[in-house]
Amino acid sequence: MVQNQSKGLQKKAVSARKANASNLKKGRRVIAPKKKDAVKHEQLKKGLSAKINRSIENQIVGAAGNSMLTIVKGNPTADTKK
To answer: Annotated region Disordered: where (predicted)?
Structure first.
């Protein structure tokens, strides 16, 4: 009779590398603090992009006014002849 656990039923220990890798997320989340100029530049760029987008949206809303918005479809025969 078997008194100890058999080898097949024992769990393998999770390696430290795999455990650390599961905690990380791919892609840049923040700019490294040692690059203060880069942080300032990215914050300025982000703010300017938001202001530009907001301005464009306001211009489009103003241009549309109270008129009805319609969907314009192209000529279907011109699209198929490529």
So the answer is: 1-43
Residue 14 · residue 23 · CB < 8 Å: no
Q: Which residue has the tokens 């489009």?
A: 60
Q: Which residues does the chain have with pLDDT short of 70? A: 1-11, 14, 24-28, 30-33, 69, 78-82
If residue 26 lies in a helix (H) or strand (E), which one and from where to where?
none
- The predicted structure's pLDDT at residue 41: 92
Q: Quick one: CA dihedral 15, 20, 25, 28, positive or negative?
A: negative
Cβ atoms of 12 and 4 within 8 Å: the answer is no
- Residue found by looking up tokens 């100890």 in the block: 4
